[in-house]
Give the backbone structure.
Amino acid sequence: MNENFIQQLFAERVGGNKFGNDAFLYKFEKVTRAKNAATIRNPSVELIDLGIGEPDWMAEPEIINVLNDEAKKRENRGYTGNGIQDFKDAAVKYMEKVYNVYGLDHINEVNHGVGSKSILALLPLAFINPGDITIMTVPGYPVMGTMTKALNGEVVNLPLYEENNFLPDLDSLTSEQRRRAKLLYINYPNNPTGATVSKEFFQKVVQFAQENSIIVVSDAAYAALTFDSEKPLSFLTVDGAKDVGIEVHSLSKSYNMTGWRLAFICGNELVVKGFASVKDNNDSGQFAAIQKAGIYCLQHPEITERTALKYSRRHNLLVEALNNLGFSVKKPRASFYLYVRIPKATKAGRIFESAEDFSQYLITEKLISVVPWDDAGSYVRLSVTFEAKDEDDERRIVKEVKCRFAEANFIF
Ligand SMILES: Cc1ncc(COP(=O)(O)O)c(C=O)c1O
């Protein structure tokens, strides 16, 4: 037996026999390693983490109480398969109340998922044959493309440029790409750009999908976290949307419940059915007590509104601080992400070749962690989910960020 035979058995999709080599490191792993190294080198300096893509708050005590009560009930102990009907009913009512989406069939046009990541990842299993295309946007959430590649499909990346308000240019797709494409993933409010869209954009997407027979997967993970008079907007409010696609909603960010793993898919009946079929072979449903706590959430959208106000407040602080230093950042109207074009250099002569280079500088020299994106211009994503004890502490942290940036003396 070759002692190292397991190393030889890894599939190409995870790096083949080079699996585990640093060359294949996921970007977030690089950020984590740099963070750890910087903390070891500077144990007395506070590391300010603006890189984390998940809420700093806990779920509300009422939600935890529901989980606590329901977890004790014998009837909730087992597999839930494709979910409990009460959660689906609550999801349909939530879509009416928060998004003005009416007429979803509560049995056939909605299903729960073990987080939206899992829904986004599983959908290609129902649709992608070798050679089929999934269209996604970059910078974006990589999970939208990984399963398609694993199935020997092809991923076409549409860049999101600032000059186009971070919208994809669907017209740039060739007729060959449109013919082979089966899935189009979009995500607004967008991670990482923070961009929001109007209903006209969704109308254009529906028209494009109808003309080219492509299924739309609208990832609405941040859709309810709006502020500054922006209202939550669903792709499904567009006439004809349900004929061409589905939307994925998550409780992770809207209810500070990333670890709970609860989301739902709604929209086109056949797509939902296809999802249910592949889901059945991958998980056995989320714990019923968690789904029941989720029902409480969906009945209380004001929880999300409270959370969104916090993000808005923190965005105000950070945007003002950065713009005072010479950056030109625009406050988003939703989500907790602030997307910032990188400076060219420091006055002391440190030139930034890429966003990754800039982010490594920030973590190593300034102990500020951010996430770099070099897909369509060089930007870093700052997340206002940093840990702060109260509003005074929020101001203290942003002031500290401003001080450390000011010392760097950036050139733009
Ligand atoms: C754009 C986007 N979609 C989906 C998700 C997945 O969220 P969850 O699986 O927690 O529902 C995330 C998480 O970061 C995200 O940023």
Q: What stands out?
A: The pocket of pyridoxal-5'-phosphate is lined by residues 53, 115-117, 141, 187, 191, 219, 221, 250, 252, 258, 263 (CB under 6 Å). DSSP finds 15 helices and 14 strands in the chain. The domain at 10-58+303-411 is CATH 3.90.1150.10 (Aspartate Aminotransferase, domain 1).
